Amino acid sequence: MLQAIGLTSTPRRDLSPAVDDLTFEAPPGRVTALLGAPGSGKTTALRLMLELDSGRGVTYFRGRPLHRIGHPAREVGVLLGDVPGHPARTARGQLRMLCAAAGVPASRADDLLEVVGLAGLGDQRLGTLSVGMDRRLGLASALLGDPHTLVLDDPAEGLSPRERSWLHGLLRAHAREGGTVLHTTSDPKEAARTADRVVTIDDGRLVADQDVADFSRTRLRPRVAVRTPHAARLASVVRREARATQRSVEVVAEESNRLSVYGSSCAEIGDTAYRHGVPVHQLADETGDTGPVSASASAAAAAAGAGAGAGAGAGAGARAVPRPASSVAISELPPPIPVRPARGPLRPLRYELRRLLGVRTTTMIMAAVLAVSVGLSVLLARSGRTPLPDLLVGWPDLLPLPPAAFGAGLLGALSFGDEFRYPALAAGRGTVPRRLGLLVAKLAVSAGVAVFLATASVLADAEVLRLVYGGDLVEVPANAAQLAASWAGLAIGCAWAGLLAAGVFRLTGAGVAAVLAVPVLVVPLVQWLLAGPSARSIVGLPGRLRELAWLQWPYETDRWAMAAVRVVTQPVGVALSLSLSALICAYVFTSLRGRARW
Q: Which of 17, 98, 436, 546 has the largest CB neighbor count within 10 A?
């Protein structure tokens, strides 16, 4: 069962809250429709229930609030708006990536594509999907974790009548298996056709909570609206004549001398009033109270609609929530709803690999980096003045970074940049999560990609140089191990700098700027600080470290430790270390803030 208690959104400035003290239930085994006109607060209510917006109140999913559920995707399936994802990713790739996030087998993606009728369109790109296909894919995303509760925001919007019928049949099948279904709609007739229970809201407040039979009987039947100063007398006369003619006529007294007459017509009511001398100020055919009026309606129309809905709801046993007094004590308010950061993927490494390899961007960047690196190496070798290490990585003096290091930084920046631009994890929680597991997975994958790209560029440059200029040009240097470690450290450092900066500033461009800032700004600053003769030396540092450590390592490792120290103490190494330290601190600071702000 889904229980929403006292949902109240945080008001903006002097405006009233979009949702105000909303309380209702969605029982299991039934489809519940949250009915309201556009702007009535339906979507805000869902976001409060899912702890995506701040406010007050609490929502229990089978007795537990969402932040107390260990695996939310296995308890609650969510569809808010369109499917968020990279437009170049396929439908199957998107679902498999979300399978890794939900901790379910990747084979479930193909099963759900068949369930929602997209079995033959798994290789279709997200950017080419129609509205109906997008809705089907969104429903498949909500069903990935086999949840008990479905929370859907207007899932039938933009669908054809045939697709609407299929969608509501699928929702009813989920309810028949014991699940809870809550969906929003602004069409009262659709709510009457598809739901078992209808919760009507207006201006963020509960108007009526009814079974669908009561809703259809009291709020959808054609009626005659009559306004007269002698409402009681006219009602008595109409009932007496209906009994005399054995017709089924129901008269409901509304507020301010208004009657709603069901089972009659304007002509019959007018004739009856004329025969008995009852003055009539209004006489019109209406189609019941089909829901709350929109926020743009006039105040008089809003009052009339609310009064009719309240009267009909009272006649059918509807449950309404009165407006609380302004003097309610603070202690009586419902508990606050803080915006909690979303959980990370349950299988972060698999998720990150699918995110990285699910689009052609990664392959295109790698191919472009190798092509530029090979071309620069061939051009630099013609002059004969470029050192062999720079020649093998294609690093001319006029470039701040070699192509492979810049490519690694760009891929690292895209690792978090795409998360914010195309938030794949928003299918479950609406925002990009910041969790240690996801960060470690991104760091590991970006480091592996950086090492692969750095190694591939060196091998490609060496082979092309050997092919063009002969084998005498390329020789293995004596300090090959130290150069390899330095080259790998530069590539990994650039990748991590781009990744962390994009995670802090939520932009791919910020990650690229952080990568370029290392050689352009930080390295000259470090060189200026380290300029001048040094009176001290770090020679013998490994031996002194051995004296402090309780664990004794072999003496052969001293040479490797000293080589690593020399690499780190180079200006580029110091600059990368400083930049990464600053970005890690900024990332931790933004992650530990009490409220997510992305």
A: 98
**Amino acid identity for residue 256 in this structure:** S
Joined tokens for residue 82: 């369109």
- 81-90, 124-133, 297-306, 511-520: segment of lowest average pLDDT: 297-306
Which amino acid, one-letter code, is at 333? L
Residue 281 near residue 234 (C-beta atoms within 8 A): no
Beta strands in 76-128 (DSSP E): 76-79
DSSP per-residue string spanning 401-432: S-HHHHHHHHHHHHHHHHHHHS-GGGGTSSS-
CA 306 – CA 370 distance, rounded (Å): 68
What CA–CA distance (Å, rounded) separates 508 from 37? 39
d(CA 19, CA 22): 7
The type of residue at 178 is: G
Tokens of 403: 């192509």
Count CB-CB contacts under 10 A for residue 581.
10
DSSP state of 81: S
Token output for 434: 């910041």
Residue 254 in 3-state DSSP? coil
Question: Which residue's structure tokens are 């009176």?
Answer: 535
Residue-wise pLDDT for 154-190, tens only, equals: 999 888 889 999 999 999 999 999 999 999 999 888 9
Model pTM greater than 0.85? no
Residue 306: pLDDT above 80? no
- Closest of 225, 232, 219 to residue 269, by C-alpha: 225
Strand-strand pairing, 197-202 and 258-262: unpaired
Ramachandran category for residue 384: left, alpha or beta (phi over 0 → left; psi -120 to 50 → alpha): left
Of 285, 264, 279, 275, which is closest to residue 231 (Cα–Cα)? 279
Residue type, 100: A
Report yes or no: 361 and 88 within 8 Å, Cβ to Cβ: yes
Does pLDDT of 301 surpass 70? no
Please answer whether residues 376 and 393 qualify as being in contact, where contact means their C-beta atoms are separated by less than 8 angstroms. no
The CA distance from 260 to 258, in Å, is 7
Which residues are CB-contacts of 543 (< 8 A; sequence separation ≥ 6)? 558
Tell the burial category of 70 from Cβ atoms under 10 Å away from its Cβ (0-12, 13-18, 19+).
Answer: exposed
SS3 at position 201? strand
- Residue 280: how many other CB atoms lie within 10 Å: 18
C-alpha angle with apex 503: 498 to 508, nearest 5 degrees? Answer: 55
How far, in Å, are 75, 223, 388, 403, 476 from residue 480 at the CA level?
55, 90, 11, 20, 7
3-state secondary structure 342-380: CCCCCCHHHHHHHHHHCCCHHHHHHHHHHHHHHHHHHHH
Residue in this structure with the two tokens 């028949």, named with its chain if needed: 176
Return the percentage of the chain with pLDDT > 70, whole number: 80
Contacts of residue 459, defined as CB under 8 A and 6 or more positions apart, other chains included, come to none
